[in-house]
């Protein structure tokens, strides 16, 4: 209830997943699973619906031919670009104004998003690009798609690649977070890791991170 009140007074929005991580950190003896938090929010919604912070989805979408992006005349006073895997984290960073230029993939990046980032990197070659992704095979696969290209594009795999730096957890950082915050890998995670580890595009330190995930059979998800 206290956290819900804080979110309301600060005009912050959170997903149930974010709320779970907040409670796991502040009250580990009371909340140990996402299911418990989900049930709790349902009860609070019924009893004190006026106290809950609103959670809603918003996005800006640009429609049109891809070659229009190539023709864009770009200007920017940004000092860096942050590429964010999750829309919820993108929303929080935007609310807190922790950004110069934010782009969200909302999951696996489509060609239009990759092309837009590629055009930005070509127009401003000295502008750092950093990616904030989960420490799991899917998150690292998103980063690798921007940096090395898409395996599924065949001969055009390297098209629209740009020099993206990795911002976020590494395998060596896992000792700094509670063990209960780690989640077991799913079969799909293992398949993603296996596919990318067999790819010639993948470079050494990224391959080592995939191997660490597989050996630990765990993943860590980011939340703000």
From TrEMBL:
Domain of life: Eukaryota
Coiled coil feature spans: none
Gene Ontology annotations of biological process type: meiotic DNA double-strand break formation; meiotic DNA double-strand break processing; reciprocal meiotic recombination
Cofactors named for this entry: Mg(2+)
Pfam families named among the record's database cross-references: TOP6A-Spo11_Toprim (PF21180), TP6A_N (PF04406)
InterPro entries: Spo11/TopoVI_A (IPR002815), Spo11/TopoVI_A_N (IPR013049), Spo11/TopoVI_A_sf (IPR036078), TOPRIM_Topo6A/Spo11 (IPR034136)
GO molecular function, one term: DNA binding
Catalytic activity: ATP-dependent breakage, passage and rejoining of double-stranded DNA
EC number: 5.6.2.2
Cellular component, GO annotation: nuclear chromosome
Domain Topoisomerase 6 subunit A/Spo11 TOPRIM intervals: 80-222
Presence of keyword Magnesium: yes
Regions crossing the membrane: none
Enzyme class, first EC level, given as a word: isomerase
Domain Spo11/DNA topoisomerase VI subunit A N-terminal: 1-45
Keywords, ordered alphabetically: DNA-binding, Isomerase, Magnesium, Metal-binding, Topoisomerase
Keyword rRNA-binding: no
Family: Belongs to the TOP6A family.
Protein name as catalogued: DNA topoisomerase (ATP-hydrolyzing)
Biological classification of the source: Eukaryota, Viridiplantae, Streptophyta, Embryophyta, Tracheophyta
């Amino acid at each position: 209830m206290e956290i819900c009140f804080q979110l309301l007074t600060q005009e912050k929005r959170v997903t149930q997943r974010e709320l779970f991580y907040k409670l796991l950190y502040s009250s580990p003896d009371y909340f140990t699973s996402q299911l418990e938090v989900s049930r709790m929010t349902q009860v609070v919604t019924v009893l004190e619906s006026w106290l809950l912070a609103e959670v809603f989805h918003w996005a800006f979408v640009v429609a049109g031919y891809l070659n229009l992006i190539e023709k864009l005349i770009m200007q920017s006073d940004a000092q860096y670009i942050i590429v964010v895997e999750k829309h919820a984290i993108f929303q929080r960073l935007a609310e807190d104004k922790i950004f110069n230029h934010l782009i969200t993939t909302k999951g696996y990046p489509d060609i239009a998003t990759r092309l837009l980032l590629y055009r930005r990197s070509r127009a401003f070659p000295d502008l750092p690009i950093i990616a904030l992704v989960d420490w799991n095979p899917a998150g690292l696969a998103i980063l690798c798609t921007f940096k090395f290209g898409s395996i599924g594009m065949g001969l055009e795999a390297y098209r629209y690649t740009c020099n993206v730096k990795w911002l976020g957890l590494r395998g060596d950082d896992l000792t700094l977070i509670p063990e209960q915050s780690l989640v077991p890998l799913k079969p799909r995670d293992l398949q993603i890791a296996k596919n990318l580890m067999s790819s010639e595009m993948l470079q050494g330190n990224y391959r080592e991170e995939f191997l660490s995930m597989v050996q630990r059979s765990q993943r860590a998800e980011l939340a703000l």
